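Hi all, long-time lurker, first post. I run a small reading group and we've been trying to get comfortable going from sequence to structure in the token notation. Rather than ask abstract questions, I figured I'd post a concrete chain and ask someone more experienced to write out its structure so we can walk through it together at our next meeting. Sequence below, copied exactly:
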Amino acid sequence: MNKNDLHLKRNPTLRDFQEHVAKMIKERGFDKETVPEVFMYLLDICNYFKIDLEKSFRDKEEINKKRFWE
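-- Answer (accepted) --
Happy to help. Here is the structure in token form:
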């Protein structure tokens, strides 16, 4: 794949974004990264948006505990 093959549709769906990023990651050689390295990106995004990931997780889990699961 060369750089000219990497295009995102004009009105992309979420699936289109996901597929685009997968191709971009492979093209740029980031597919060799480890899970801890990818996890660092998640934490960096949370920091950028001032999201307390642990609090968000715990809050969501409390909501889920009250939910009826089939």
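A couple of things your group might point at:
The radius of gyration is 17 Å.
The mean pLDDT is 89.
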